[in-house]
Amino acid sequence: MKTTQINQVTVPALGIGTWALGEGPAAQSTAELTAIRAGLDAGLTLIDTAEMYGDGKAETLVGQAIAPYDRSRLYLVSKFYPWHATPKLMRLALEKSLQRLGTDYLDLYLLHWPGETPLTETLSGLVALKKAGLIRAYGLSNFDLPALKAARALPGGKGIAANEVLYNVAARGIDFDLIPYQQQRNLPLLGYSPFGSGNGRQIPLPSAVVQLAHQMHLSVHQLLLAWAGRGPVIPLVKTGSAAHMAANLAALAVQFTAAQLAIIDAAFPAPTRKVPLQSI
Fold it and tell me: Is residue 278 part of a domain?
């Protein structure tokens, strides 16, 4: 399996996303739990969640899914609201997340998006949580390059271990500046919503891209996922069934030729200048 590193810890180069999981009827949640465990059994030990997702329902589902597994072999990522970004409030938020997840620490804790709390306070709180052993590493989410640079210049900023942003064929502005910057500094970049959102049909695909998927014996979803994970970005993908999880794992092994990438680039050109960071 293709791997990479976050905070000097080896992790799969594909993460299990959990946005909107645990919010449906019992049968749906059971299928989602089965999907998570299918991923874990196959070696996908990186799970990304947040207190925002279903007001904690996703974290609760993840907690149920990982209960039988060796915690030390998992890499759990969660995120906190910007209005919980003071040292006191983030500690309370973290304690609730840990309770829902059924663990006593997170591998990575992220500020979900920039807010009004001064980053100096947020970083101070994150440093304290790390020193207390409640988190192994901390980072940011939805930070563009100027905001990331400003954060890294603050006390505690050099300890930022990762950044998580939107990344797919239709939202690839980070190819221009953020990816090169983070890659040069060995700062991992996680990319959410590789299909756009929902069931993946939110990104209109031209016939040439659909035909390419058929030629490569891939589903459109597998093509989009493989593209998002072709470089240094770690894609995070929500999966509601074991069958889809197996398809995601197959996509992890896909390698593109230059000609195949050129077809995708023609349909979704790489940026030639800085563009505003997109988010969902």
Answer: no
